[in-house]
Amino acid sequence: MLIQPTYTARTQLFASMQNSGSVQELQQGNTFAEARVQSYVRTVETPIVLQPVIDRLGLHTTPEKLAKKVTAGADLNTVIINISVVDSSPDQAAAIAKGVGESLIAAVDALEKPKNAGSSPVNLSVVTPAVPPDAPTAPDTKRNLALGLFLGLLAGLAAAFLRAALDNLVHSEADLRKTTDAPLLGAIPFDHQAVKKPLLTEVGGQSSRAEAYRQLRTNLQFTNVSGQRTAVLVTSSVPGEGKSTTAINLAITLAQAGQRVCLVDADLRRPMIHDYLGLPKDIGLTTALMGTTPLAEAIQSWGSDRLFVLTSGQVPPNPSELLGSEEMKDLVVRLRRDFQTVIIDSPPLLPVTDAAVLSQHVDGVALVIGAEKIKHQELAKSLRMLVMVDATLLGVILNRLPAKGPDAYQYNVGGSSKISLGSQARAPERA
Q1: Which strands, in side-by-side order, build the sheet including 80-87?
Q2: Superfamily (CATH H level) for 7-128
Q3: Structural class in CATH, domain 169-430
Q4: 90: preceding bond cis by omega (within 30 degrees)
Q5: CA atoms within 13 A on the CB side of 113
Q6: Residue 126 and residue 107: Cα distance in Å, rounded?
Q7: How far from chain centre, in Å, is Cα 424?
Q8: In this predicted model, what pLDDT tens digit does every residue of 232-267 receive, in sequence order?
Q9: CB 344 within 8 A of CB 362
Q10: 118 versus 406: which is more confidently predicted?
């Protein structure tokens, strides 16, 4: 649509021999003219023809540049020369075509004239004069739009197939099943408000995110059919998958259901729970493990429900050794005795070994998978790490699922989740 239109003007010349002899001489002259026509066609784009046109019309160009606008040709076994000129102005295209035709006639007359004087045996005459065209010859908008649509469609399909081939991220449960058949404990939709309001207590109880966590709570209870007091480790493969907010909101929903819950911040690398809940962290897990603070004094109550929090405490120089100690094992045992459910937030599996060490002290591991955040090979590596330490994998939690699109999470009150939870009731498996 933005291409400047161009116009094509055409003129035709007829080549003949100036001979009025016998029929045989006329035939020989016609054969001679046909043989010479191709030479005249080649002459059209030479300076001997184009320079006079430039001078006569006052064009600000050179014969080389003008030659790019001029096209000459002749049909086989004919003596007609076709000259076409393309220009952005229809009048100028006609003027140049007319000038080229006249200049060619003069040039051929001069080239074919005998050296011993006399007239040229070849006569060129105009049979189709050049006139300004009524309509542009280019661009062909309909053709270009059709071609652009076709090529754009091909490019889009190629890009889509290439992206699908190179995309190694986990987007949905279907992608998850390419790597593992672990039970899907929950599917948490992405909420733009979660950045400013990460806690369920800050959003409406009927929101899709709140309902997703209630579903997660129910599915987690199915993994503990015996009703025993349990300690669950919540971790992820890489940072940024939302394990800390998942652990916090899971603890909140369990407490809202009437359970006595203890939330432990065992991420001693980047503790976040105290920030989310607005609690001090100077006294917490590390001080309780080192014996400087009694465990009962290190635990803080939060909210109006039966939720208690053990923040990280001061960050130690040796988190892995501290979390793998007998003191940590005994602390988890004491918490399981005092609380119905213990939710422990740990560092991601791949960067450090803390989560693998902690998995030995709990009843099971819930692995948070951030949709569009983790690659299949990273997830597979995390699962292999849990297998190596013989951890019990309760299931996986799909987090940050898109709100729209083919992988979207939807929940209808009185209906069921769009995400299939057919495997939720399976028993926990050894990773």
Answers
A1: 70-74, 80-87, 7-17, 122-128
A2: EIF_2_alpha (3.30.70.1130)
A3: alpha beta
A4: no
A5: 11
A6: 14
A7: 32
A8: 999 999 999 999 999 999 999 999 999 999 999 999
A9: yes
A10: 118
The answer to whether the CB of 108 falls within 8 A of the CB of 122 is: yes
Kindly report which listed range (130-139, 334-343, 410-419) carries the lowest average pLDDT score: 410-419
Structure tokens at 11: 């003129």
What phi and psi values does residue 181 have, to the nearest 5 degrees? -110, 25
Provide, rounded to the nearest whole percent, the portion of the chain with pLDDT above 70: 90
pLDDT for res 229: 82
Is the CA virtual torsion 264, 316, 396, 426 positive or negative? negative
pTM above 0.90, yes or no: no
Q: Are 17 and 79 in contact (CB under 8 A)?
A: no
pLDDT at residue 391, rounded to an integer: 95
Return the amino acid letter for 377: Q
Of 258, 236, 276, 269, the C-alpha closest to 368 is 236
Tokens at 380, concatenated:
């597979």
| pLDDT, tens digit, 9 for 90 and up, residues 185-237 | 999 998 887 888 889 888 877 888 899 999 999 999 888 756 688 999 999 99
Exposed/middle/buried for residue 314 (C-beta within 10 Å: 0-12, 13-18, 19+): middle
**392-414 pLDDT, tens digit each:** 999 999 999 987 766 665 544 33
